[in-house]
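== Polypeptide entry ==
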Amino acid sequence: MTGLGERRLAVVVPARNAMEVLPAFLTSLEGSTHRTWEAFLADDQSTDDTAGMVERWCRNGRGRLVTLQTRQGAPGARNAALRAALAAGHDLVVFHDADCVLEPGTLAAHAAAQTAHPRAGIVGGPVRSLHTTRIGAADGYASWFTSPPGRPDGRVRFLHLPTCNLSVKSWVFEKTGFFREDLATGEDVAFCQEARRHGVELRFAANAVIGHRDRDRLDQALAHHARWGEHTHEVRQGERAFLASLVPSSPLAFRLASVPYALGFSLLVLALWIRYDPRVLLATADIFRMKRAFTEGMVSGAMRRSRRD
C-alpha cells in the first residue's frame, strides 16, 4: 500500500454565493504540486451561479458538486461534502474555504505532515491574510492569530486550527463525529477540542500555507467578530476549550468586564503574532475595535444561554 503522501486526497470546500472568489481558488487548486486529489464542493443554496460554475468546472473530472436541498450554513455544507468524500473511500480530507488561495505546495505539505506523524490525526497550516485596506490587515491578525505564517512545525497542545486550512485522517471522524452544525462560527474550536478529548494529536505544518481574503470593510469585520463572540459560551465553556476559565457565565459580568476583556483579547492577539510579524503593532487600535465587537457579541451570547438555561 502506498503512503498517505502518494494517495488521492479529498479537498472539501463549502460555498455560498462564491462566484467572485471561486475562480482564484480553483486556479490555485489546479496549480498544486500534489496532483492526486479530488475536490468535493458543496453549494449551500447559492442565489448566484456558484453551483453552475462548480458544475462546469467539475467536467474536468477533478471534482464533484454536492448540492444542498436546504440552506445549512458553512458547517452543514462542509459536513455534506465530507460525507461524499468519505463515501468515495478517501482516508485523508483537506478542508479549505472558497475564499482561499492555495500555495502550490499546500496539499503536498499536508500529505507529508500526515505521513510523518501517524498519530497526528489533524494538521493545520499558516493562514496568510489577503487584503487591500488596513481594516483587512487587522481582520487577518484578529482572525488567524492561532495560525500565523512563520510559526514553526510542532504539536498544537492548546490552540485550535481553523477549518480554512485543515487536514484530517478519516479515522478521526469515527471518534469525534462531524462538525457541529448548531454553530455559525467556532465549529473548528469545538472540533479540535473534541479531538483532544479522544486523544487525537494536532500538529502545525509551517509550509502548508494558504491565503485567505479578509474583510476590508469595517462594518463587515465588526459584524463577523460579533457573531464569533456570540458563540463563545458554546465553544469555550461548553467544550471546556482553551481559556474557558476566563469566560464568565453571567451576562452582567460580561457587560461589566467587556472593555477589559476586549483589551485582554487584543493583547493575546498581539502576543501570538508579534514574534512572526511585528507590523501587527500598527493594527493595535483596529484589533481592539474588533475585539470590542467580539466582547459585545459575548454579552449577547451569554444572555441567550442564560435564557435557555
Residues 1-5, 238-244 have pLDDT under 50 and may be disordered.
